[in-house]
Amino acid sequence: MTNQKSSQKAESQKSKSAAARTADRKALRWALVRQLLLTTGLVILWIMLWDGWSVVHIVTGIIVAVIVTRLFYLPPIELSGRINPWYFAVYLAWFAWQLARGALQVAAVALRPRKTNPGSVIAVDLHTRSDLLITIIAQTAGLIPGTFVTEVDRARGVIFLHVLDCNTDEQIESARELALEIEVYVIKAMGSLHDIHVLNESRIAQGQKPVLGGRTVKDVKAKSDAKTSGEGKPGVKPAGADTTREDGA
After folding, report:
1. Which of 4, 39, 52, 239 has the fewest Cβ atoms surrounding its Cβ within 10 A?
2. Is there a contact between 98 and 175 (Cβ–Cβ < 8 Å)?
3. DSSP code for 162
4. Whether the predicted pLDDT of 217 surpasses 60
5. Name one GO cellular component term (predicted).
């Protein structure tokens, strides 16, 4: 009996160590991918600044990129590890339409004879807490004519927008809904499963249809159920369980 318990304990420790090594390798791969993407972006920016394409520009760009990333180190940007090409294309098409629509609206405001209504600064509470997604959402909103970002509260996930010709409750709510619509498109295109789950929970609570058919909610629930059932597998003692001992004859 003692040998069996020792064997189970050894197997459990081996399984945990193997899982830890797998997690470490996965984290290392993601770190290398992030570093490669950052370095590549800086090299491309360097080449664009010099307006030339040569081996010298590429080599010096790599050197400058390595120096910048080593001397001016910033916390790594956590990538979601997910991108949907279809929804990304939909997001780009929608963004192009909003650019044209916003330009026409600003032109109409500038050309109309009556006095321009005052603008408003609107706080928009986002569902995501990803630095990358918050940045993309803020940049998208700021590039649409008639709107620009005045401040971003990273800790609370709030962006503040100044909207042109916006002083009624209906206009303010419309501008806020536009910013939240940007978030929906961005999360559908490149948000993590957690972002989708949080967004769906909010939409369901408000009586709205969940994005992506609500599949993520089911996935999260299935993972949670699998984790809960895994705690009751033979040979795995749940935390806090009492250990009983049979007295031998």
Report:
1. 239
2. no
3. E
4. no
5. plasma membrane
Q: Given its phi and psi angles, is residue 161 left (phi above 0), alpha (psi -120 to 50 degrees) or beta?
A: beta
Rounded to an integer, what distance in angstroms lies between the CA atom of residue 31 and that of residue 20?
16
pLDDT in tens, 87-144: 999 999 999 999 999 999 999 988 888 887 888 999 999 999 888 899 999 999 999 9
How many Cα atoms are found within 13 Å in the side-chain-facing hemisphere of 29?
A: 7
**3-class DSSP assignment, residue 152:** strand
Q: How far is CA 106 from the centre of its chain?
A: 31
What residues have CB less than 8 Å from 129, skipping those under 6 apart?
Answer: 157
Instruction: Give the closest residue to 133 by CA, choosing from 68, 180, 65.
Output: 180
State the pLDDT at residue 110: 87
CB distance 160 to 123 below 8 Å: yes
